[in-house]
Design a protein that fits this description.
This protein is an alpha+beta fold. The protein is 43% helix and 23% strand. The chain has helices at 2-109, 256-259, and strands at 122-124, 130-137, 143-150, 155-166, 185-187, 192-198, 210-212, 215-220, 227-232, 241-243, 248-249. β8 (215-220) and β9 (227-232) form a beta hairpin. The radius of gyration is 65 Å and the shape is globular.
């Protein structure tokens, strides 16, 4: 009996020892093992989360940086393009403004363009803007008609009377005062004025009669004190013309009839 009890006691003791060992192992596994595992999982989770968060942050920062760079670049490019467009369009705008100013200036100056044209000017008739023809007349006898035609583009005035010189004469013949017209003879381009020259006395009473083949005609200016411009040298008949000391001239006349009536 004692042996059996001892065997049971040893079995119980062994079982208890096994149980205690099991409990000890379980307690160890449940404690350190779980803690370690928990710590390991937690650390892994934190590490992973931290890594993912860092990568996400880096990605976000990269994206923001790229966006910022892109935006800055795009903004700068757009700004530069806008500035370039403004600079490029500036000459066009300036040209348009200039054209507008030019058009305005032209419109403003339009009335000035209506100022008297060259054909509206009035100048003195003289050799450079007229043509003079000398033609001896049968009636009245011993007379010669001077015809002056305005060949210029401006209206000209025939002042006073012709200063004629035959040959080498040193003085011009006197004018018939009674032949003075009411107004200065005015010649439009193409128009003619007239004067007659009384060459010699009809009754032969004149002294120092002679034949001349050369004639010069000069023109007085407004003052009447001296000739102006260029003289004219109209042709005379080949046989010449006879003159004497009774030589006189008329004032310039607007019509031929008035000229030859003296």
């Amino acid at each position: 009996m004692s042996s059996i009890r001892n065997s049971r006691t040893r079995l119980l003791t062994a079982a208890a020892t096994v149980a205690l060992a099991t409990l000890s192992l379980t307690a160890c596994g449940d404690g350190m093992g779980v803690a370690d595992a928990g710590a390991s999982v937690g650390a892994s989770s934190v590490t992973t989360e931290s890594k993912e968060s860092k990568e996400s942050k880096e990605s976000t920062d990269s994206a923001k940086s790229a966006e910022s760079t892109s935006g800055s670049s795009g903004s700068g490019s757009s700004s530069d393009d806008a500035k370039q467009a403004a600079v490029t369009s500036k000459p066009a705008a300036h040209a348009a403004a200039s054209n507008t100013s030019a058009a305005h200036a032209a419109a403003t100056k339009a009335p000035a363009s209506k100022a008297p044209a060259s054909s509206d000017k009035v100048v003195t008739c003289e050799g450079s803007n007229t043509k003079t023809v000398a033609a001896p007349l049968n009636r009245p006898v011993n007379h010669m008609l001077l015809t002056v035609t305005n060949t210029g583009s401006d209206t000209c005035y025939l002042y006073y009377y012709p200063a004629v010189r035959f040959g080498e004469a040193q003085a011009v013949p006197p004018v018939i005062e009674e032949s003075q017209p009411q107004a200065v003879v005015t010649l439009e381009p193409g128009e003619s004025g007239y004067a007659s020259v009384n060459l010699s006395a009809a009754d032969g009473s004149g002294a120092h009669g002679r034949t001349e083949k050369d004639l010069a005609v000069y023109f007085y200016g407004r003052s009447g004190s001296e000739s102006v411009g260029k003289g004219a040298r109209p042709s005379l008949p080949a046989k010449g013309v006879y003159i004497d000391d009774s030589l006189t001239v008329t004032y310039w006349q607007q019509s031929m009839d008035d000229a030859i009536s003296w």
